[in-house]
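TOPIC: backbone geometry
CONTENTS: sequence, C-alpha coordinates:
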Amino acid sequence: MSANNTGLPGGVAVSHLSVYDWPAADGACGGTPHMHLACSEAYVVTGGRGTVQTLTASGYEETPLQAGTVAWFTPGTIHRLVNEGDLRITVLMQNSGLPEAGDAVLTLPPEYLTDPETYARATAIPADAPEAEQERVARARRDLALEGYRALCAAEGPQALAEFHRAAAALVRPRIAEWRERWRQGAEASAAATGVQLDSLERGEFPHLADAVVRSELPAAHGKFGMCGRLDVYGN
Protein backbone atom coordinates (compact mmCIF):
# COMPACT_ATOMS: atom_id res chain seq x y z
CA MET A 1 0.00 0.00 0.00
CA SER A 2 1.32 3.46 -0.88
CA ALA A 3 2.17 5.64 2.11
CA ASN A 4 1.00 8.72 0.24
CA ASN A 5 -2.51 9.51 -0.95
CA THR A 6 -2.37 10.76 -4.54
CA GLY A 7 -5.71 12.61 -4.32
CA LEU A 8 -6.75 15.56 -2.23
CA PRO A 9 -6.33 15.18 1.54
CA GLY A 10 -8.67 12.68 3.15
CA GLY A 11 -10.16 11.54 -0.14
CA VAL A 12 -12.25 14.68 -0.60
CA ALA A 13 -12.94 16.51 -3.86
CA VAL A 14 -13.76 20.11 -4.72
CA SER A 15 -15.76 22.06 -7.26
CA HIS A 16 -16.51 25.75 -7.72
CA LEU A 17 -20.20 26.61 -7.83
CA SER A 18 -22.03 29.67 -9.11
CA VAL A 19 -25.57 29.16 -7.83
CA TYR A 20 -28.37 29.49 -10.38
CA ASP A 21 -30.15 32.84 -10.41
CA TRP A 22 -33.27 31.35 -12.02
CA PRO A 23 -36.45 32.38 -10.16
CA ALA A 24 -38.75 29.59 -9.02
CA ALA A 25 -42.51 29.48 -8.45
CA ASP A 26 -42.07 30.66 -4.85
CA GLY A 27 -40.09 33.72 -5.97
CA ALA A 28 -36.74 32.46 -4.70
CA CYS A 29 -33.81 32.05 -7.07
CA GLY A 30 -31.53 29.05 -6.81
CA GLY A 31 -30.83 25.40 -7.29
CA THR A 32 -32.39 21.98 -7.21
CA PRO A 33 -33.26 20.42 -3.84
CA HIS A 34 -31.71 17.00 -3.40
CA MET A 35 -30.22 14.58 -0.88
CA HIS A 36 -27.00 12.56 -0.62
CA LEU A 37 -27.20 9.06 0.82
CA ALA A 38 -23.58 8.18 1.63
CA CYS A 39 -21.63 11.45 1.65
CA SER A 40 -21.26 14.57 3.72
CA GLU A 41 -20.79 17.87 1.90
CA ALA A 42 -19.43 21.28 2.93
CA TYR A 43 -19.86 24.78 1.52
CA VAL A 44 -17.08 27.37 1.72
CA VAL A 45 -18.78 30.57 0.60
CA THR A 46 -16.41 32.71 -1.48
CA GLY A 47 -18.76 35.48 -2.58
CA GLY A 48 -22.27 36.87 -2.62
CA ARG A 49 -25.02 35.93 -0.22
CA GLY A 50 -27.87 33.49 0.09
CA THR A 51 -29.32 30.69 2.16
CA VAL A 52 -29.25 26.93 2.28
CA GLN A 53 -32.64 25.46 3.14
CA THR A 54 -32.45 22.03 4.74
CA LEU A 55 -34.99 19.37 5.63
CA THR A 56 -34.22 16.39 7.87
CA ALA A 57 -36.13 14.18 10.27
CA SER A 58 -35.51 16.94 12.82
CA GLY A 59 -37.37 19.49 10.70
CA TYR A 60 -36.82 22.43 8.36
CA GLU A 61 -34.01 24.97 8.80
CA GLU A 62 -32.46 27.89 6.96
CA THR A 63 -28.74 28.68 7.25
CA PRO A 64 -27.61 32.14 6.03
CA LEU A 65 -24.63 32.14 3.67
CA GLN A 66 -22.19 34.97 3.02
CA ALA A 67 -18.53 35.25 2.08
CA GLY A 68 -16.51 33.43 4.74
CA THR A 69 -19.30 31.10 5.88
CA VAL A 70 -18.46 27.41 6.13
CA ALA A 71 -21.54 25.17 6.38
CA TRP A 72 -21.73 21.38 6.17
CA PHE A 73 -24.24 18.60 6.50
CA THR A 74 -24.41 14.82 6.71
CA PRO A 75 -26.11 12.20 4.50
CA GLY A 76 -29.90 12.38 4.60
CA THR A 77 -30.04 16.18 4.58
CA ILE A 78 -32.31 17.48 1.82
CA HIS A 79 -30.80 20.82 0.80
CA ARG A 80 -31.77 23.67 -1.49
CA LEU A 81 -29.48 26.62 -2.24
CA VAL A 82 -31.15 30.03 -2.56
CA ASN A 83 -29.21 32.76 -4.36
CA GLU A 84 -29.84 36.22 -2.93
CA GLY A 85 -27.05 37.89 -4.90
CA ASP A 86 -24.13 36.38 -6.84
CA LEU A 87 -23.75 33.40 -4.48
CA ARG A 88 -20.49 31.56 -5.15
CA ILE A 89 -19.28 28.53 -3.23
CA THR A 90 -16.36 26.13 -3.17
CA VAL A 91 -17.93 22.74 -2.47
CA LEU A 92 -16.02 20.08 -0.53
CA MET A 93 -17.31 16.56 -1.15
CA GLN A 94 -16.65 13.35 0.71
CA ASN A 95 -15.55 10.16 -1.04
CA SER A 96 -13.65 11.61 -3.99
CA GLY A 97 -16.55 13.66 -5.33
CA LEU A 98 -19.18 10.94 -5.14
CA PRO A 99 -21.96 13.53 -4.54
CA GLU A 100 -21.46 14.73 -8.12
CA ALA A 101 -20.83 11.21 -9.42
CA GLY A 102 -24.10 9.57 -8.47
CA ASP A 103 -24.75 10.01 -4.76
CA ALA A 104 -27.67 12.40 -5.13
CA VAL A 105 -31.41 11.94 -5.46
CA LEU A 106 -33.55 14.92 -6.42
CA THR A 107 -36.78 15.51 -4.54
CA LEU A 108 -39.01 14.71 -7.50
CA PRO A 109 -42.66 13.85 -6.95
CA PRO A 110 -43.13 10.17 -5.99
CA GLU A 111 -44.23 9.02 -9.45
CA TYR A 112 -40.74 9.81 -10.79
CA LEU A 113 -38.97 7.81 -8.06
CA THR A 114 -40.41 4.40 -8.88
CA ASP A 115 -37.38 2.96 -10.72
CA PRO A 116 -33.97 4.08 -12.04
CA GLU A 117 -35.14 4.37 -15.66
CA THR A 118 -38.08 6.64 -14.85
CA TYR A 119 -35.88 8.76 -12.62
CA ALA A 120 -33.12 9.03 -15.25
CA ARG A 121 -35.56 10.19 -17.93
CA ALA A 122 -36.69 13.01 -15.65
CA THR A 123 -33.22 14.13 -14.55
CA ALA A 124 -30.63 13.46 -17.25
CA ILE A 125 -29.11 16.46 -19.02
CA PRO A 126 -28.02 15.48 -22.56
CA ALA A 127 -24.27 16.09 -22.71
CA ASP A 128 -24.23 16.52 -26.50
CA ALA A 129 -27.12 19.03 -26.64
CA PRO A 130 -26.61 22.75 -27.30
CA GLU A 131 -26.09 24.83 -24.17
CA ALA A 132 -29.52 26.44 -24.43
CA GLU A 133 -31.15 23.00 -24.41
CA GLN A 134 -29.05 21.86 -21.47
CA GLU A 135 -30.14 24.95 -19.56
CA ARG A 136 -33.80 24.30 -20.39
CA VAL A 137 -33.57 20.72 -19.12
CA ALA A 138 -31.66 21.73 -15.98
CA ARG A 139 -34.24 24.38 -15.18
CA ALA A 140 -37.16 22.02 -15.85
CA ARG A 141 -35.80 19.33 -13.54
CA ARG A 142 -35.13 22.00 -10.88
CA ASP A 143 -38.77 23.07 -11.04
CA LEU A 144 -39.96 19.46 -10.93
CA ALA A 145 -37.81 18.76 -7.88
CA LEU A 146 -39.24 21.84 -6.19
CA GLU A 147 -42.74 20.37 -6.56
CA GLY A 148 -41.72 17.32 -4.57
CA TYR A 149 -39.70 19.42 -2.12
CA ARG A 150 -42.63 21.70 -1.31
CA ALA A 151 -44.81 18.65 -0.67
CA LEU A 152 -42.22 17.20 1.70
CA CYS A 153 -41.91 20.50 3.57
CA ALA A 154 -45.69 20.81 3.90
CA ALA A 155 -46.31 17.22 5.01
CA GLU A 156 -47.42 16.61 8.57
CA GLY A 157 -45.68 13.81 10.41
CA PRO A 158 -42.65 11.74 9.35
CA GLN A 159 -44.32 9.47 6.79
CA ALA A 160 -43.69 11.49 3.62
CA LEU A 161 -40.01 11.98 4.40
CA ALA A 162 -39.62 8.31 5.30
CA GLU A 163 -41.20 7.32 1.97
CA PHE A 164 -38.76 9.60 0.11
CA HIS A 165 -35.83 8.02 1.99
CA ARG A 166 -37.10 4.55 1.05
CA ALA A 167 -37.51 5.45 -2.63
CA ALA A 168 -34.10 7.16 -2.78
CA ALA A 169 -32.33 4.19 -1.21
CA ALA A 170 -33.96 1.83 -3.71
CA LEU A 171 -32.91 4.03 -6.64
CA VAL A 172 -29.21 4.02 -5.71
CA ARG A 173 -28.94 0.40 -4.57
CA PRO A 174 -27.78 -0.93 -7.98
CA ARG A 175 -24.77 1.43 -7.85
CA ILE A 176 -23.47 0.60 -4.37
CA ALA A 177 -20.68 -1.71 -5.62
CA GLU A 178 -19.39 1.12 -7.83
CA TRP A 179 -19.56 3.56 -4.94
CA ARG A 180 -17.78 1.15 -2.61
CA GLU A 181 -14.84 0.91 -5.02
CA ARG A 182 -14.54 4.72 -5.16
CA TRP A 183 -14.54 4.80 -1.35
CA ARG A 184 -11.92 2.05 -1.14
CA GLN A 185 -9.57 3.83 -3.56
CA GLY A 186 -10.09 7.24 -1.92
CA ALA A 187 -11.15 7.78 1.68
CA GLU A 188 -10.39 4.26 2.92
CA ALA A 189 -6.98 4.18 1.24
CA SER A 190 -6.15 7.62 2.60
CA ALA A 191 -7.05 6.63 6.16
CA ALA A 192 -5.12 3.37 5.83
CA ALA A 193 -2.04 5.26 4.57
CA THR A 194 -2.13 7.44 7.67
CA GLY A 195 -2.19 4.29 9.79
CA VAL A 196 0.90 2.99 8.00
CA GLN A 197 2.67 6.31 8.53
CA LEU A 198 1.81 6.41 12.24
CA ASP A 199 3.04 2.83 12.68
CA SER A 200 6.33 3.74 10.98
CA LEU A 201 6.83 6.87 13.05
CA GLU A 202 6.11 4.94 16.25
CA ARG A 203 8.95 2.58 15.29
CA GLY A 204 11.24 5.54 14.67
CA GLU A 205 11.05 5.05 10.90
CA PHE A 206 10.00 7.60 8.29
CA PRO A 207 10.32 6.23 4.72
CA HIS A 208 7.24 8.13 3.51
CA LEU A 209 8.97 11.46 4.11
CA ALA A 210 11.39 10.75 1.27
CA ASP A 211 8.45 10.17 -1.07
CA ALA A 212 6.95 13.64 -0.58
CA VAL A 213 5.39 15.18 -3.71
CA VAL A 214 3.61 18.38 -4.73
CA ARG A 215 0.65 18.34 -7.12
CA SER A 216 -1.63 20.94 -8.66
CA GLU A 217 -4.58 20.89 -11.01
CA LEU A 218 -6.77 23.28 -12.99
CA PRO A 219 -10.49 22.66 -13.54
CA ALA A 220 -11.20 19.93 -16.06
CA ALA A 221 -14.48 21.59 -17.10
CA HIS A 222 -16.01 25.03 -16.70
CA GLY A 223 -19.66 26.02 -16.38
CA LYS A 224 -21.13 22.52 -16.26
CA PHE A 225 -24.86 22.47 -15.46
CA GLY A 226 -25.07 20.95 -12.00
CA MET A 227 -27.87 20.45 -9.52
CA CYS A 228 -27.37 23.77 -7.74
CA GLY A 229 -25.65 25.93 -10.35
CA ARG A 230 -22.87 26.17 -12.91
CA LEU A 231 -19.84 24.13 -11.91
CA ASP A 232 -16.12 24.29 -12.48
CA VAL A 233 -15.08 20.71 -11.81
CA TYR A 234 -11.76 18.97 -11.21
CA GLY A 235 -10.64 15.50 -12.17
CA ASN A 236 -9.47 14.57 -8.65
The radius of gyration is 19 Å. The chain has a mean pLDDT of 95.
